[in-house]
Amino acid sequence: MQGNTHIVGGITASLAFAQISNDNPFVLVGAGVLGALLPDICHGGSKIGRTFPLISKMVNKLFGHRSFTHSLLFVVLVALLLQTIIPYPSIVAGLLIGMSSHIILDMGTKQGVKLFFPFNMSVRFPLTTRTGGKVEKIVFTLLSVLSLYLSYELISRFISEI
Ligand SMILES: [Zn+2]
User: Fold this and answer.
1) 94 CA distance to ligand 1 centroid (A)?
2) N or C: which terminus of the chain carries fewer CB neighbours within 10 A?
3) Which domain holds residue 13?
4) What's the gap in Å between 66 CA and the centre of ligand 1?
């Protein structure tokens, strides 16, 4: 999936989580967007790959695309690392939610993801789409509408608490 789809996916997932948690929604969404971009560090042409070209090249050489950085192992390792270096649970939660949303969205592409890395098995949904295709535009639109609805829910909850 493309960067913009991942961004709106990260926003939607963090807003959904914000409905059931007491974390600051702005912190969750900010961290969620960053987390949603992080797995594509394995791809030099991605937003985050262009920001950190050297790291991106190294990760790509070592693991290839949609491999280690799109796996459960990566999410667990990053979770352990973040918990030790970032003292703000809301930021850690947002980053992990964003990363998970990224991996789930990429499971909707033909290539799938190496979810169980180091096992070399590609995991994808029964229905998949081409990156940048028409279906991805529909997914993008649906996620945008959903995130607007979730924002509306949060705002009305906030107003009713005043
Ligand atoms: Zn990806």
Assistant:
1) 17
2) C
3) 1-159
4) 6
Centre of ligand 1 to C-alpha 161, Å, is: 39
Q: With contact defined as beta carbons under 8 Å apart, do 41 and 48 qualify?
A: yes
Q: Is the dihedral of CA 62, 63, 66, 69 positive or negative?
A: negative
Q: What is the pLDDT along the chain (162 residues), one digit of tens a residue?
A: 999 999 999 999 999 999 999 999 999 999 999 999 999 999 999 999 999 999 999 999 999 889 999 999 999 999 999 999 999 999 999 999 999 999 999 999 999 999 999 999 999 999 999 888 899 999 999 999 999 999 999 999 889 988
CA distances from 158 to 18, 147, 162 (A): 12, 16, 7
Give the number of domains in the chain: 1
Q: What is the pTM of this model?
A: 0.93
CA of 45 relative to ligand 1 center, distance in Å: 11
Cα gap 106→162, rounded to integer Å: 40
Ligand 1 centre to CA of 41 (Å) is 8
161 vs 97: CA distance, rounded Å = 26
